[in-house]
């Protein structure tokens, strides 16, 4: 089976060489891998690095370097899908690491009959200093980050609502189309919701694993959390069913703090004290858990302060998104739905084109 191995990147010159090394070392036959890279209008040397990889012969079936028409993740992924010709389409973020047998194991499970497969996606860091490891501990904690099942490798085959760095049969995109370009951080949630609605299952396999690099500074991590929360707020107006109640816990936490503070100023401090005490308890329990399950260092004592920063920032992002929602929705013109259909038609067209080329090649062999 031909595999389209796709990645998109914006200002990722510091991590691309590591990802390219992972591509080169894949055990799956390179002459059956089509590499598609999309530059998201980067302002550094990302595009140049992509072109250098393209110009070096690593034996791949093809290496395509494209430029996204918009500086959004959804638009970049759609650009990749429009050019993908593989039987299987695999999405890998630029800020990632994939083991040597990643592609091969995805292909194996697709051949076993699954339509969408993937594996656990734990976090990693691009450095070994104590501060980066502390941020990694915060990100890996259930309390500090997402409770999504796919973040942790399963012990046996499981079916989830979503997957990270997933492999899809081509037919999946031919049926549901591409990404919704109105959305920012939640384009995956919306796409996977449509896939589930179409009857597809997300198979998480224990032998498949990939890694996502954690933001290596606290300001970058806080910015990421704010952005995640912000797009959760906006997505309520587009596809509320693609979100779970877990997405709104930081928002509810912030509201409870604001509400209890107002009540306190009115002369009733008990509610604020109860909420604070409950949060402090969870905070300390999870901090102790990090000390016990990780290799602690002195910076771990800052975890009780890092956790609330992440939670409050995420909640503020959701608040801002909800406040902007009515004005944002007025700007939507329906072009994203047309784009979803354009991608679907391109997938179908490229499928037919590749089948015609295959038949022509087989005919030439017979004639010889």
Description:
- This protein has 368 residues and is of the alpha/beta class.
- It has two domains: 247 residues, Spore Coat Polysaccharide Biosynthesis Protein SpsA, Chain A (Alpha-Beta Complex), CATH 3.90.550; 109 residues, no CATH class.
- The chain contains twelve helices and eleven strands.
- The strands form two sheets. It has an eight-stranded mixed β-sheet, sandwiched between helices. Strands 5-11-7 form a three-stranded mixed β-sheet.
- Strand 2, helix 2 and strand 3 form a beta-alpha-beta unit.
- Helix 6 packs antiparallel against helix 12.
- It is globular, with a radius of gyration of 22 Å.
- The mean pLDDT is 91.
What tags apply to this protein structure?
51% helix; alpha/beta; 3-stranded mixed beta sheet; 12 helices; Spore Coat Polysaccharide Biosynthesis Protein SpsA, Chain A; 2 domains; 368 residues
